[in-house]
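Following up on my earlier thread - several people asked me to post the actual chain instead of describing it. Fair enough. Here it is, all 254 residues.
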Amino acid sequence: MPVKQKKESGNNILSIDIGGTSIKACILSSKGDLLSEFKKLPTPKNSTPEEVIKTIKELVASLDDSFDRISIGFPGYVRCGKVETAPNLAKNKWTNIDLAQQVSNLFKRPVRLINDADQQALGIVSGIGFEIVFTVGTGFGTALVYDGELLPHFELAHLPVTKTKDYDDYIGTKALEKIGKKDWNERLQRIIQIYKTVFNYDTLYIGGGNSKHITFELDHNIHLVTNKDGIKGGAKLWEVAEKYHVFTTRPNDK
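Reply from S.P.:
Thanks for posting it. Predicted structure:
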């Protein structure tokens, strides 16, 4: 996506995507146009809230600072600006963490914080019918959208798919490295079949860093997408009403 070298004072959005492997950030216009370079840094090995915020601060320092709102996609369950779970970040460090408030206070800007797959979905879906987005990367992310409206988030990655594994274990990066691409593709096909049966979706989108390893033929209503395809989600997040888990956190006055 080409970078547009212009500023829209009062409307620009800092969009942040926190992943188990890397943390990404860019500046978007209110329409989702990319106004800065798409920057990323490795997710800290000790991925505590403090270290993640430190990485975000470093990323933002490398960008144009003309932004007025912040969107954050987070790899876990988020409710009203607080993180409840983060299975692929530091263990036992992310329960009831007011990440949105901390980032809002740091940059003195309002923040909307939602699940990372949900944020990507807002930038990807067509807005017609029941659409599902998968992200296959460090773990397994899902988002559900009906006629363009983001539905409540479910951590479907933690449903059991075998006696000993949930979806994260079954299809995440560790599984890919252990079993190889052939078996990993077979597992993904099994997951798609389960979702077809359970959800009867109109369209399925598959993104995430490991989607490049898909070798089987996709159904006509399944589409591969990239992180950049979903980048507009950071802007779209500010167009939707506060509902379910979409919540605006504002800086504390001190």
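The first strand starts at residue 13 and ends at 18. That should answer part of your original question.
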